[in-house]
Amino acid sequence: MSAGFGLAHLPYAAVSHAGREFVAVRLGDDVIDLAALAVISPPPAGVDVSVLAAPDLGALMAAGPDTWAGVRAWLQGSLLSGPTAASIPLADVEPRMPFAVADFVDFYASREHASNLGRIFRPDAEPLLPNWRHLPVGYHGRAGTVVPSGTPVARPSGQQRPGPDGRPGFGPSRALDIEAELGFVVGAPSVPGRPVGTGDFDQHVFGVTLLNDWSARDIQAWEYVPLGPFLGKSFATSISPWITPLAALQSARVPLPGQDPEPLDYLMVEEPAGYAIDLEVDLNGTVVSRPPYAAMYWSPAQMLAHMTVNGASLRTGDLYGSGTISGAEPTRRGSLLELSWGGAESFTLDDGSTRTYLEDGDTVTLRATARGADGELLTLGEVTGTVIG
Ligand code: MN
């Protein structure tokens, strides 16, 4: 049995099987059809069975934290004795987009990543801009191009920095990159005009997925001043179809590495506010980096509070990315931009080939693990994509 898919985990997905689309959890190398399980082993009275009979996770996500807790307790009890009549081999189902993405926001919460980019792009200046330690910097991305793992990624074309003649270049990106991130999935909506405090993070966030924020650095470099990322990132963002419930990560919580200066009141957070989740970035079968989520400066609760402090409300299906996860060591950088130091230093794959940025046919897979209740291994759903020319 594959490790990391025990009762302490139970990640959710929407799958298709035998012409039917339904919601499921993974247990070992099986998936459990939640609607079928509800017939065999009825859930408690507080759980509206219709959320289990929906074609994707949207209804369950919208039902809120009491239902999430009720469903999880019911699943852990019903599945104690192993496979049931509601079990289907994992290999027989096709995971689909798990929910309709409402808004997509991406942050920039790794101090190491932000500092590395500052050093690469502004070598003579202070690496971090003045606002960085006071607020989680972010931008609004494109929800409609968030795609499930396995979706091919077409190399984007766009404008690039002008050459000596002053005319911008145009053509396929020659600096196609990845960003290794976590995605936080909002379930319960919030009321317009009412900010969500850091303490209400687990009342709104349903779970966590792996996210690859594909990025065309040459397009990005020319367009991003003064309003931030646009076409250099909006062509595709890949997520794992498996959503790890926030409750499964309770035991993986760790204190943040430390915030100096102390943030404003609305960003104050009760520790432990970080998560010990270890990622790996695989390029064509070579693990090129192992980014540590525990090193992130800003916590997901702070990002949620910041995103709503102006009164902007949350919708079911909102997705926000952590920002590229980079650790202090060179082997823990979560983008090729950093691994190749701005494209200046190539690195070698196990097959002997070298890379700075991605070539057509390259496959990037992000994986992650954490420790759940009683130290049980949790393997987060992987996210993979292949570049096509
Ligand atoms: Mn990003």
Give an account of the 3D structure.
- This protein is α+β, with helices and mostly antiparallel strands and 389 residues long.
- It folds into two domains: 12-95, Roll (SH3 type barrels), CATH 2.30.30.230; 104-388, Fumarylacetoacetase-like, C-terminal domain (Fumarylacetoacetate hydrolase, domain 2), CATH 3.90.850.10.
- It is built from eight helices and 26 strands.
- The strands form seven sheets. Strands 6, 7, 8, 13, 14, 16, 17 and 22 form an eight-stranded mixed sheet that branches. A five-stranded antiparallel sheet has the order 4-3-2-1-5.
- The chain binds manganese (II) ion (MN).
- Manganese (II) ion is lined by residues 106, 179, 181, 213, 321, 323-324.
Quick tags:
about 400 residues, SH3 type barrels, 2 domains, eight-stranded mixed beta sheet, five-stranded antiparallel beta sheet, about 30% strand, globular, binds manganese (II) ion
Please describe the biggest sheet, giving its number of strands, its sense, and whether it closes into a barrel.
Answer: 8 strands, mixed
What is the top-level CATH class of the largest domain? Alpha Beta
What's the CATH topology name of the largest domain?
Fumarylacetoacetate hydrolase, domain 2
End-to-end distance:
37 Å
Provide the low-confidence segments as ranges.
none
